[in-house]
Specification:
The protein has about 250 residues and is α/β, with parallel strands linked by helices. The chain contains nine helices and eleven strands.
């Protein structure tokens, strides 16, 4: 089953940033998106998660249209009520954690469960504590974000996203704000989620990680998909000259 389908997506700011991109994410699969800065990777994720509105195209979650294009070529979004329901299908882990600094670790995780999903405090606490244990942070329940390392904060943000039980999880360069020695702990969490067949879309500059974890790699440049396919093929044996030039900057 396809969790996400994007068809002919276009997005402009002053210039066209996303140029007619289409992609599909199957249930249980991991899609890695790589490419240079400014290639449109993060904008694509922001469009897919409704943080940016698109100019035209289609975004479909679980066979339900979040947005489609009308006959005059303009994007038309679903009603606010329908969008709120569709938005429950996905979670997003940001580069810079986006935790509430005045909330404890456990409250950062449980607050959306109580306010958005209307779960009882006891049920939310049970979910939150189970996820903190999964992230190796059971002893940080009452800590505040300022008392955590960057890696710990990112694990809390992953737990917060997982708490809402999304069908698909998006990661926007989840290690870019971390010191190199903290990167490994986040990559391990994502590897573990992949082994559990969590459906994920990951924008990353970690090439070896993308090759090892993803089922499908997309290389973007200039707002288009330049090359895509099996990770071994795209990263180890790219066919497009632009892909080769980009990957030559990395150890693979």
């Amino acid at each position: 089953m396809n969790i996400l389908e994007i068809k002919n997506l276009k997005k402009s700011f002053d210039t066209e940033v996303i140029k007619d991109i289409s992609l599909t994410v199957e249930e249980g699969k991991v899609v890695g998106i790589i490419g240079p800065s400014g290639s449109g990777k993060s904008t694509l994720l922001r469009c897919a998660t409704m943080l940016e509105t698109i100019d035209s195209g289609e975004i479909i979650y679980m066979n339900e249209h979040a947005v489609r294009t009308n006959p005059d070529g303009k994007a038309v979004y679903a009603s606010p009520k329908e969008l709120r329901r569709i938005q429950r299908y996905f979670g997003l882990v940001f580069q810079n954690f986006n935790l509430f600094p005045h909330y404890s670790v456990i409250k950062n995780i449980t607050d959306p469960l109580i306010t958005v999903q209307k779960k009882s405090k006891n049920e939310a606490m049970e979910i939150g504590r189970r996820l903190l244990e999964k992230m190796g942070l059971s002893d940080k329940e009452h800590a505040y974000p300022c008392q955590l390392s960057g890696g710990q904060q990112q694990r809390v943000s992953i737990a917060r996203a997982l708490a809402l039980n999304p069908k698909i999880l998006f990661f926007d360069e989840p290690t870019s704000a971390l010191d190199p020695e903290l990167t490994g702990e986040i990559l391990k969490v994502i590897r573990d989620l992949a082994q559990e067949h969590m459906t994920m879309v990951i924008v990353t500059h970690e090439m070896s990680f993308a090759r090892d974890v993803a089922d499908h790699i997309i290389f973007m440049d200039g707002g288009v998909i330049v090359e895509q396919g099996n990770p071994e093929d795209v990263i180890n044996n790219p066919k497009n000259e632009r892909t080769k030039a980009f990957l030559n900057r990395f150890e693979r």
